[in-house]
Amino acid sequence: MRLKAGLVFLSDSRTNAGVDHISTFRKMTVFEHPGERVMVLLSSGNLAITQAVIHQLSSYHAAGEPSVWNAANLFEAARVVGGAVREVHRADAETLSAFNLEFNANFLFGGQVRGETPRLFNVYSAGNFIEATEESPYFQIGELKYGKPILDRVVTMQTSLDAAAKCALVSMDSTLRSNISVGMPLDLLVYDAGALRVNRFVQIDSDNVYWRMISTTWGSRLRQVFSEIPNPTWDAAAPSDVHLLSGGTPPRAPLPAEIAALPDDAGPESPHTSTNAQPLKQAI
User: Fold this and answer.
1) Is 139 exposed, middle or buried (0-12, 13-18, 19+ CB in 10 A)?
2) Cα angle for residues 119, 124, 125 (degrees, 5° grid)
3) Could you report how far apart the first and last alpha carbons of the chain are, in Å?
4) How does pLDDT run across 212-252, given as a tens digit for each residue?
5) What residues have CB less than 8 Å from 89, skipping those under 6 apart?
6) Contact between 105 and 86 (Cβ < 8 Å)
7) Which of 9-31 are b and which e, b meaning 16 or more Cβ less than 10 Å from the residue's Cβ?
8) How many domains does the chain have?
9) Could you tell me where the DSSP H helices lie in 143-242?
10) Rounded Cα gap, residues 191 and 206, in angstroms
11) How many Cβ atoms sit within 10 Å of the Cβ of residue 48?
12) What CA–CA distance (Å, rounded) separates 68 from 56?
């Protein structure tokens, strides 16, 4: 998330190649030169590809060669990340294609370089990217659909960092409950604009007290709110102030002519009925 107050990054650490092959690899990489720049890279997709990109970005660069360490601003640093993605694509994409494997890697890249405000980018598999804006202050990659609704309802540029961190954890809790490919521990980094150093970071496992409170409270409050919402009323004669669901017709398939021509009492006999059937006796 990119907010007026700073940046919030959250990632899980589960990778899998099937339900019987699950591993833990951290998906957050921090590039920090205190007082000069802080940049955070989050990754999703094929682990071999994302690790190769991170290796490219972390390797030694000759003097004058563009890198995340000497880029004049975050936009230029994002171009370096995109270039690393394309370099790995040139090296591996053809071989992956021969094995019917897709070149699948996505990155979130954000931070601050001294002299400019914090920025956030979503870098695609092709190495191109887009930047977070006032209207779209957050990005997600990976398994995003389960946790997205809470972010859409809560996060704006004016959201405080603490509220945004809480919202990110609630969003991740929803994803963890609905998708086996996402798992603990989590890496949470909260960056205050202008700090130019990492000052708030935590690795969260399932025993973390705040995490357990978030997960338990969010689930119980959802059930509470759900139970407080009135059930629908289907009676069209009900007063107008009742929560009415009524009206319209279902999209029916046309009745076959041979069935429509039958008398109303000549329908097919149910396999569960018989003219000499005896009433069922009920026992409780």
Assistant:
1) buried
2) 150
3) 57
4) 999 999 999 999 999 999 888 887 676 766 677 777 888 99
5) 103, 125, 126, 127
6) no
7) bbbbbbbeeeeeeeeeeebbbeb
8) 1
9) 148-154, 161-178, 209-228
10) 23
11) 12
12) 11
Q: Which domain holds residue 64?
A: 2-224
pLDDT score of 267: 54
The β-bridge partners of 191 are: 7
Instruction: For residue 147, give the CATH number of its domain.
Output: 3.60.20.10
Distance CA 17, CA 22 (A): 7
Kindly state whether residue 267 falls inside one of the protein's structural domains.
Answer: no
| Residue 270 located in a structural domain | no
Residues of the chain with pLDDT under 70: 16-21, 236, 238, 240-242, 265-284
- Residue 178 placed within a domain: yes
Residue 260, SS3 per DSSP:
helix
Residue 241 lies in a domain: no
Do 185 and 204 form a contact (C-beta atoms < 8 A)?
Answer: yes
> Residue 45 CB: number of other CB atoms within 10 A?
19
* Cα–Cα distance, 102 to 159 (Å, whole number): 37
| Residue pointed to by tokens 């076959």 | 256
Strand pairing report for 201-204 and 186-192 = antiparallel
Omega before 279 within 30 of 0, i.e. cis = no
Beta carbons of 168 and 188 less than 8 angstroms apart: yes
H or E element in which residue 57 lies? helix 47-58
What sign results for the dihedral spanned by CA atoms 210, 212, 217, 222?
positive
Cβ distance 55 to 49 under 8 Å? no
Give pLDDT tens digits for 189-208. Answer: 999 999 999 999 999 999 99
pTM given for the model:
0.84
Are 32 and 201 within 8 A, CB to CB?
A: no
